[in-house]
Every structure is written in C-alpha cells, then in structure tokens.
Amino acid sequence: MDMKKTVFALAAALLALASCAGPKDAALPKKDIGVQLYSIRDQIGNPELYAQNHEEVLKGLAEMGYSGCEAACYGDGTLYGVSPEQYKSDLEAAGLKSLSTHIMKGLSEEELQSGDFTPSMEWWDKAIDAHKRAGCKYIVCPGFGIPGTLAGLKVYCDYFNAIGKKCLENGILFGYHNHSHEFNKLEDKVIYDFMIENTDPQYVFFEMDVYWAVMGKAYPVEYFRKYPGRFKLLHIKDHRELGESGMVGFDAIFNNLETAGVEAIIVELEAFTNGDWKESMKMCADYLRKSDFVPASYGK
Question: For residue 64, which of 245, 250, 216, 285 has the smallest C-alpha distance?
C-alpha cells in the first residue's frame, strides 16, 4: 500500500472511531440547574468546613454544570460564617450565582397564641437584609413545628404572608419547602393543601420537594394542576442519585414545569450511595443535562 492510501485508510479509521464515541463523549448541553448546598454538608456545611473547602467545592460544582446555589447555613447575619457580600463573591468567583437559601424562625408560644409576630419579624428584618446583600432571589422556609390545630396552622399561614410581604418589599420571593408529613391530615384537612389555600400567592410560593411529596403518597403533577403557578422552585431528588432508582417520575414532572410555574430546579441529595460526593453530584447534573424534558432555562 502506498503512502497516500495508508493516510486515507488511517483517516477513515479515525473517523469511524469518532463516530462510535456516542453521545456520552460529546459535550452535554448547558442548563440552568441549581444545587442545595445541604447535599454537601460534610464538605462545607459549617463555617469551619466552608473556610477550608469552599474554593475547591464550589469550583467543582460549577465544572459539573451547576449554575446556582441554595444556601443552608445562615446565622446572625452571615452565611457559612462569612458576610453576605463575601458569600456572593465566593460563588461568583467559582462561576455560580446566589439563587436562594433555607432559613426559618419559628413562632414562640406567646406569638402563636396572640397572633402578634412583632418579635419574630424583627429577626426577619436582619435576615432579609443579609440575603438581599447576598444576592438571593428566593428565601425558603425548610420546615417548622406544625401546630396541632388548624387554627394554629392558620396563624402560621398569616405569619408566612407577613414574611412574604416583607421579602417582596425587598425584591425577594418567600416560599415554603415540604417534607412528607405535610401530606398528612389535620382535622380532616391535608396540611399542604390548607397551607397553599391560606397563603397569598403574591407573597408565598411553594418549593415542592418531589421526593418527599412522593414519600407522602402525593402526586406532584396533580398538585401542579390543582394549584397552577404556585411552585416557583422544585427540589429534584430521588431515593438515590437522580435516575438511579426510578422511584420518582421525573419526565412527567419536567413536562409540567410551565403549569407549575417553575422558575428554577434545585438538586438535593440526602446521601451518596457510592461514598463519593463528586461522583454523585456529577451523576445528578449529567442526568438533568441529558434529559430532553429539562429546559435550558425557565419562564420568569
């Protein structure tokens, strides 16, 4: 075989090899995917760990394809032990945006009985200011001690409306994140339904954790259709890394994002089944980036 034929044959072989590489070796599309930093609490879950590891961890998340973060370590005006401005700067240095946070101040027994939230609202003044400076678009209550009566629960709904109104005045949206127990009944009324129906849509949205909803024997898409537009954020979670158990019907959920009113999806993991946070978080990001149902961005 002469040299020209040898070169042609080699080129053809390389082309054939490239064509067999398949989608897994191609660059995955960039999508707007958030991450709840509680997922990596063992790496940056307190001020000491954050100081030691945040640069490597945040950079790693950005390289996996995550675009924004939901914080889970607020205390006395700081996030992860640093000023709100520093937290925002740390995220931006890694190529991430400050999206949202989980914080809560429960009512005292006196406030619950009187319906006067003044002491707690003073706490919220400082917290909302801190999150405004941190660049957060959303503040989310991650849960609270649910009272034993609907009358008590109504007081909390009024409280959430008051928080949401104050947040909105500062350019932030306030929401509530569920677990499974909100799908139980209280005085023959489903707690989650009561909360949705007794909060003002202009002041309170709901961050549905789809895994906990399913664990509570609820159906996310049914809720999207029953209460359209109320679910601005979704926690995307499964029994294992996304796509590994098939317990949650993600395609149906993603196909109804517009009905739900979704503005962002946020990945959260309770544990890493393989023991490697980097591998687990990348598996989740890759799953969402490969999905035809997950848009590159959302209607806002």
Answer: 285
Beta strands in the chain (DSSP E): 33-36, 68-71, 74-75, 78-79, 97-102, 138-141, 173-177, 185-186, 189-190, 204-209, 233-236, 264-267
Q: Which three-class secondary structure state does DSSP give residue 15?
A: helix
- pLDDT tens per residue across span 229-239: 999 999 999 98
DSSP state at residue 45: S
The rounded distance, in Å, linking the Cα atoms of 86 and 94 is 12
Neighbouring C-beta atoms of residue 186, cutoff 10 Å:
16
- CB atoms under 10 Å from CB of 198, counted, come to 16
**Residue 24 DSSP symbol:** G
What pLDDT digit, counting tens, does each position of 141-200 carry?
999 999 999 999 999 999 999 999 999 999 999 999 999 999 999 999 999 999 999 999
- Which uninterrupted H or E stretch holds 158? helix 150-169
Which stretches of the chain score pLDDT less than 70? Answer: 1-26, 298-300
Nearest to 156 by CA among 108, 202, 213: 108
Tell me whether strands 189-190 and 97-102 are parallel, antiparallel or unpaired: unpaired
Under DSSP, the state recorded for 82 is: B
**Rounded Cα distance, 75 and 73, in Å:** 7
The two structure tokens encoding residue 177: 């994140």
Cα(174)–Cα(258) distance, integer angstroms = 19
What does the chain come to in residues? 300
